[in-house]
Q: What sequence folds into this?
């Protein structure tokens, strides 16, 4: 089943579990899948920035993708295919789709500056992978340094019928969601799914501005799914209460560069994966940082029993 | 009285209050001073990035500085003197000190890359302003794009006896505080005050890592002063409880580009300043954003009565 | 007399002459003016990036501007007013115009990325300085990191009637000149003077693509004026012959960071200024570099007698 | 035979020839090899930035490498292995060495800023590819935005015994060569081959500063080899005369972004390759640019008969 503009809910950004010796830990992939589904995931995204994709051999990348696809069954799996060249992008995109992926995600290379450069890049990328593969725009200026206005996103969507989703992680970005939804109200933009990233730091309000869900990797996917659901049900206070309880930890996890180490550590403590090892070159938490995360988990457990270890 | 390495507590980053027509609102400066002192400020920083300094005429900048100096009495006033050229930096630094400032703050220009470029810049800046003016290093890579390792900060401190403080706002930056404090334990770095910025987003743990206080402009300086005090008194749980209650709003205020509009709006709602106007070119909150801030204030008021309007 | 879209010929980018002790050397300003006029200059630009403007006190900047205005008589003097804030930009622009400047030049700040940010910046700048001051867009991505498409330049020109000139120094940039001249042919862009910079590295072909002249500081303004004139007279071979003879030295002078030291050294050797001193922080040529420049001058003198010392 | 620190002469940066339909043109690879050898090449570098490497499938990249290795016989072939991840870097490096490459070239990723980040990256890269593969540092800040001081280069060389060469293309960079050669004179740096790139724009003086040769892709490798040879023979005037004759075209070819199109066009006109096609997304010369290149070739032919078509 192909990804389309009606996608919503929670698509966790999956980390790649490794054993301490650096091998891909497929048993942990299976556990991750099970826990994501139990948490309420409606899809999943693999081989993103937080999936340590550049450290994977091409065969490994496809094997991991296939394992997630098997586990998620009918639910869509989105595959990150950003690459410095279109040959590699095309090869991975076509291979992933053949194995049953629902669509791909494409981030712009950091050198892009002008509006025309950005829209031109997406045209070329679509030409490279083929117009039959649904794709997600990743809009993440904090890391990628590429700034897309709402008008540029609209141009990409309008010029490429296979564009079905925006992974929105501009920061600040609430007004961008409102602008895009405004374009749709005035008829100048066709339907587009908007899932939000950026670690979930503004998920509480992003849902109120019109997002369809979350696509991010916070180590408590249950909270992300719940906030998305509560907001859709109109239970605003409940959504914010839950979100606020998690915010101290979420904020800690959302640190650039350190975030993945925090995330894997918490996922390991929670039994989602067997080890928090990163393939080299990786980063690890200092003892002081581990103590801080443990402290945040203990404090969170008072509000959300699922944080009890 | 000159700033020295024993400085601690809370130095709010002061905004510059304007009237809706764009004039400097000196009555609001007086009110700000009064409220900062009541909140527990032990000093103040003016003409920083959030003080709209580049929009001020030189005479206005000095007049504002003088007003804060008068209001703060014996407490130290730090003046931001970052400038594209050393002539302007020197002129402002000397004039501010003559009027009674305690020291100046210098941010590195964005073009600096290598360790030698950064340390060379600070040597030249000190030569320009004179070795008799105590200065603060501003380490803020998120906005300035200049990355200083702990080793580079140590070199700047060691090469320039007039360096007395680090405004620490690297992100993530907890390990940097630990590294600098480690240098001091092993005798390779002399005493240095570390006040933390970055909107206060990690103040809870920064104090535990060895910071001496906060230098940032969150619109509830009372909370910043309290967290600093509680951590110094060893009341960890109380510090985190208070911090966590504020985090949803603090996180909202800490958005790049939008932050000053949020901050001025909250300060206006709280009666610290008469208007949230920014001098042109400024940004303003949309109605949707104002509603969100009001909602966050109302939620905060349940935990901290000082947020009641 | 105000600058307008008919401006053409050679506007040298003037360095600021200093004495070895760092004082402004006004006698050398007078000599520069005399030599520029003898070389065929049709105007001059002061306080540009190569004019060490950020090292000047505001009074000095105005005094230098006034001296050039006096010396150039009826010929236009353009004043660089780029500044981190609109207050300083406005103050300098208004003061310079009062003293008789013909227009100002505005470079975009390096943080600008999207098309809308760039055009928005120029609207705000014009609002700040006033719509009555003719201005020049400086398009210099190599140093400023801001990338303007021909479409963005057209938008700036169309939105701001006081825009009369483009200082074109994109690299590569020949196609940009052709694109802008194409807009004028198809009626979508009003008349606009295009003078080219970038050290003159492509002046030979820029004139053939439609530039109106040069605005750059190569230490042989005679060559720049001659190439502009020869190309206008249709003497293509003569223009290229002269240009090619100078290219080895011109290329050497056009090095980022070192260029000003080379330029001032050659101007000093040629008697245009008394000293090649830069105000601190400056750079100086190593003995090896001076030997290389002397060698290039000696080689050039075989083709162009004006290089004889 | 492995690359070592005695390497010198001319290592052309080879383009990848394509047919107009986008297939790799192996017949043109053979012609290129033949012409490079006739021009005096002492080695060759493949899969560099100008080799359109990111557009190649992994199998194609290896096939091209193998073809050059076969053609160059005993002469060293250096393979560019820069990649966003160490998995891909390792895979390509090991495979290329197995097929007979002499060494690899590694460029730093653009995000690196501090001295420690840069040296840390090279340590990790060497750990990834293995300490048995000789490697070349690519120092190209104009495109890569990474700035390495001479001290940082020395640290990389000293920390990694397998580092045997610097591809020097800093700009300006003459003083960097002198600084590195100075380190060797004072005994603080072991022998290191320095070949220079940057299109050859300063090859004339780079040889005089101590470079061992050129590693760049100017479409007249004969000139590069001759200038290297003449300088080594002490024939300074002859070297500069030849260099200066080529400088107008060389300068035209050295334009960022357009350079490869110029280079392939000239190589095609000279019979080195059958077509100037770039694999998509590529750039092509406009008719105006082609005319300019033809004009430059015709002018060059008056001084250097090899430019006659």
A:
């Amino acid at each position: 089943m192909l990804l389309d503009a009606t996608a919503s809910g929670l698509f966790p950004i999956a980390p790649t579990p490794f054993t301490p010796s650096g091998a891909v830990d497929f048993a942990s992939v299976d556990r991750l899948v099970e826990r994501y589904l139990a948490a309420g995931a409606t899809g999943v995204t693999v081989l993103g920035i937080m999936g340590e994709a550049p450290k994977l051999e091409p065969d490994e990348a496809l094997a991991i993708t296939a394992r997630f696809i098997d586990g998620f069954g009918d639910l869509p799996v989105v595959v990150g295919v950003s690459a410095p060249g279109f040959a590699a992008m095309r090869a991975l995109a076509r291979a992933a789709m053949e194995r049953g992926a629902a669509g791909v995600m494409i981030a712009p290379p950091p050198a892009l500056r002008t509006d025309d450069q950005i829209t031109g890049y997406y045209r070329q990328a679509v030409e490279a992978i083929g117009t039959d593969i649904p794709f997600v725009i990743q809009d993440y200026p904090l890391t990628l340094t590429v700034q897309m206005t709402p008008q540029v996103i609209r141009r990409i969507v309008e010029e490429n019928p296979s564009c079905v989703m925006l992974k929105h992680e501009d920061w600040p970005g609430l007004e961008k969601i409102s602008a895009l939804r405004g374009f749709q109200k005035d008829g100048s933009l066709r339907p587009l799914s908007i899932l939000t990233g950026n670690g979930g730091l503004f998920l509480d309000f992003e849902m109120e501005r019109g997002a369809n869900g979350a696509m991010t990797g916070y180590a408590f996917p249950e909270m992300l799914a719940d906030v998305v659901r509560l907001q859709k049900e109109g239970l605003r206070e409940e959504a914010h209460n839950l979100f606020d309880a998690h915010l101290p930890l979420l904020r800690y996890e959302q640190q650039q560069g350190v975030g993945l180490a925090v995330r894997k550590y918490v996922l390991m403590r929670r039994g989602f994966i067997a080890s928090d090892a990163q393939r080299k070159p990786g980063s690890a938490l200092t003892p002081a940082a581990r103590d801080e995360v443990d402290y945040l988990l203990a404090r969170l457990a008072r509000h959300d029993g699922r944080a009890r270890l």
